[in-house]
Amino acid sequence: MDKSKTGSAKNIRSKNDQTVRILKPSMRKKARRYAVQGIYQWHLSGNPIKDIEFQFLETINSKKVDVEYFQEILVNTLTGITEIDELLTPILDRELNEVNPVEMAIIRLACYELMSRLDVPYKVVINEALELSKTFGATEGHKFVNGVLDKLAHQLRKMETQ
User: Fold this and answer.
1) What DSSP line would sit under 47-90, residue for residue?
2) 3-class SS of residue 6
3) Alpha helix positions (H), 5-162
């Protein structure tokens, strides 16, 4: 096996001569951080998704961020916003427009991951969302985010949460 290090990712050449890129978890953490900022920006500005994506791609250090993951979660969260909001509406204790926009961005992103990224354990999704809400959200916002995502995880990942 040939290992060559590229920034924070490792390229590993397998026996059948295919290159597989191994990413550090911190690279996905940073991708989520940028995606939340992009979702928040979209929420406030209403700018086209592609414009927001391009703006972030110009500034992201691809050696420290999982750029493909960033693009996937940003674009798919925003293009699937109607389905996501339909899932969230019965869980929330208030109207969507009454939720703090930062916390809404975090919840929407986590909802996408719970729905579509079954390779990411639900506990990781929730933990990452809580870290983001402690960094960007209101003082006690992480408690609200935790409550919503706990209910959502039990709904979307029944087998995993039992």
Assistant:
1) --HHHHHHHHHHH--TTTS-HHHHHHHHHHHHHTHHHHHHHHTT
2) strand
3) 25-45, 49-59, 67-79, 81-88, 101-116, 122-136, 141-156, 158-161
- pLDDT band of residue 24 (cuts 50, 70, 90) is confident
Global confidence as pTM:
0.86
116 to 6, 22, 145: CA distances (angstroms): 28, 21, 19
**pLDDT higher than 50, residue 8:** no
Domains (range + CATH), the chain: 24-161 (1.10.940.10)
Indicate the DSSP class of residue 120. S
| Tens digits of residue pLDDT in 128-141 | 999 999 999 999 99
